[in-house]
Automatic annotation (TrEMBL):
SUPFAM superfamilies: S-adenosyl-L-methionine-dependent methyltransferases (SSF53335). Signal peptide: none annotated. GO terms for biological process: methylation. One of its GO terms (molecular function) is methyltransferase activity. PANTHER family: METHYLTRANSFERASE, UBIQUINONE BIOSYNTHESIS O-METHYLTRANSFERASE, MITOCHONDRIAL. This is Class I SAM-dependent methyltransferase. It comes from Actinoplanes hulinensis. InterPro entries: Methyltransf_25, SAM-dependent_MTases_sf. It comes from the Bacteria. It holds the Pfam family Methyltransf_25.
């Protein structure tokens, strides 16, 4: 893991001084291209985690530290409230919310990522699960006081993105909060260089589904990276 890759974990922007072809970004893009070519837009995540487990690739976002953008929200103590972490990977943000006192469920489409999360945090109270954001358990509807979507939708291509954006808000309980953290763009077309593919304002607005309304939608400066602006968007029901 290079310094560039450690920075990449917080939204996948790479320091502007680093080559966009850093080893782990290259692994992700190689496997994403192969999956997309066979019409399987999410298959590459499992392939990447499995190759990394076997020492043949690196996962660019796999760092121990929780997201700096999540920490910057300075969330209050969880006091046992229910939190759901979407696309949790090996669990850095799930463990952070667990330490804040939330009762955390965290899921990922990659079984290898969930195995890794459990192995890394053997005595964790976090409940890790393999699940697909595009086909989630019905019992999760309106089931969580806090839902975190951080850096996942931006890793999904345009053809499934609208479907994915419509889901996290469905998990939010009355009075609950959806936190969306993502790289930002003003382009409506992709420049073809992803993943990641940063989100437009219209895409961020699209998280307000099923009675959810925005609390705040702000652009955060991520100067010095190749993706220099980010979204910090909060919604409630
Ligand atoms: C770019 S990574 C970000 C990981 C983590 N949120 C972070 O910021 O460290 C995207 C994650 O979403 C997961 N993912 C992708 N598509 C998913 C889906 N349809 N359902 C659940 N997880 C998914 C991937 O396996 C991967 O762990």
């Amino acid at each position: 893991m290079t310094a560039a890759d450690a920075s990449a974990a917080d939204g996948d922007p790479l320091p502007s001084s680093s080559p966009s072809s850093s080893p782990s970004a290259g692994d992700a893009r190689r496997l994403a291209a192969a999956s997309l070519a066979v019409g399987d837009p999410t298959g590459w995540f499992e392939h990447l985690y499995a190759e990394a487990r076997d020492g043949r690739a690196e996962v660019p976002w796999d760092v121990a530290a929780p997201s700096a953008h999540l920490r910057a929200l300075d969330l209050p103590a969880g006091d046992g409230r229910r939190a759901l972490v979407v696309g949790c990977g090996p669990g850095r943000d799930a463990e952070y919310l667990g330490a804040l006192g939330y009762a955390v469920t965290a899921f990922d489409i990659s079984a290898t990522a969930i195995d890794l999360a459990r192995a890394r945090h053997p005595s964790s109270p976090v409940s890790y699960a393999v699940a697909d954001l595009l086909s989630p358990p019905a019992a999760w509807r309106h089931g969580f006081d806090l839902v975190l979507e951080s850096n996942n939708v931006q890793a999904l291509p345009a053809d499934i993105r609208a479907r994915a954006i419509a889901v996290p808000g469905m998990f939010v309980a009355p009075g609950g909060l959806l936190v969306v953290l993502a790289a930002a763009t003003s382009r409506v077309d992709s420049d073809g260089s992803g993943p990641p593919w940063p989100l437009t304002r219209a895409e961020i607005d699209g998280f307000a589904v099923d009675g959810l309304r925005p609390v705040s939608i702000t652009q955060v400066d991520a100067a010095g990276t190749t993706l220099p602006t980010r979204w910090q968007a909060l919604f409630t029901r």
